Amino acid sequence: MRVIVNFQHMDTSSPTVFVNAELLPMYVGRKVRAVVQVTQSDGEIKTGKSTDERQLIIKGLPQVPPMTHVEVIGIAESEQSIHAETWTNFGNTFDTQSYNQVCQLANGDFKGLFL
Amino acid sequence: MYGSQFDGGAAFSGGGFMPSQTTQAADPSFSSSKNREIQSLLPLTVKQIKEAFLLSDDKSNFTIDGVDVNNVTLVGMVCNRTGRITDVTFILDDGTGRIECNKWVQELVDSNEVEGILDGMYVRIHGHLKGFMGKRTLNVFSIRPITDFNEIASHFIDCIYVHLYNTRLRKLQGGVTTQQQMANSTSTPMKGSPAAPPHQFSGQYNVGQKNIEQMVLDFLQLPSSNADEKGVHCDVIARQLRVSMDKLMSSIQNLVEEGLIYSTTDDFHFKSTING
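ok -> structure tokens follow
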């Protein structure tokens, strides 16, 4: 049996959670933001490397130059994929380690400052 | 640097330098140094602003982590940008919340600043937090687009750091006050007090004489120390801070010479010149 959940009525003004691949499963259905480095492009579906070096699937992203870092903001569709609503090109010289640490801190000890 | 060292009120008052009276964006907190409060710049998330504690309804007196909020800096995305002749308003969304921002545009430098700012752009903002009828808004002094996106991670790390610093500082100050209250009511020597002595807080205090001077100064700047016009007797200070009388007296002498404290009714009572 297949259950289809409609996310279109989500309150998209709620805080956007900083996620990496490890944290994404906790926020399925919610608005998230993640930085990925696009590695593969298959039409509408892009595969990217998250800031914690794992694979994420991004839907709805237009063509981006390979190896650039892109911040994707959208709804977490599954434990491994995000449906992008907005995106920002973060360039080539982005420090993924620092951003990854922000994800961990923002969801851990300092959640109160973010969510 | 965050909330403890730079006395903005003292630096900008007197000497003929005052922000232009005609500029709408003149920050009132610069000109009023009536209580010589230390004005700090706080990096914040919108969530922190939304949860800031409002001291009084008639003025915009916010506190966050026990620190007065005056000037703030944020990083976020511009939304709903609306430009009018005299000002530009937009919503800043930093992922933790949304806050309304207003930038007055009166001179060429202002209009140049906001010209390139578009919806969906990441920006760095410096401004003053205002509250009105329960709504919090930002009066923006400076806005610029972000070009190096590492600044985003850097800003949030800044927010975390300053939050930690201020909450630790508050815990230590709270600890010293508790000691004094206990002393007044029971007048027994302090033993096994749970609060850590202030000099253990961070490496920025030098060990030794400078350290005791700072402790004495911090102690005399507490509201409880200034409740009495006479100030505090040096015996009380020695007991509270648990330092020997000779070390204390030499610290007190240095502080008096620097003009930071003064003796009141006799040679044994002292008060701080700031917040005194």
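Confidence is low (pLDDT under 50) at residues 6-12 of chain A.
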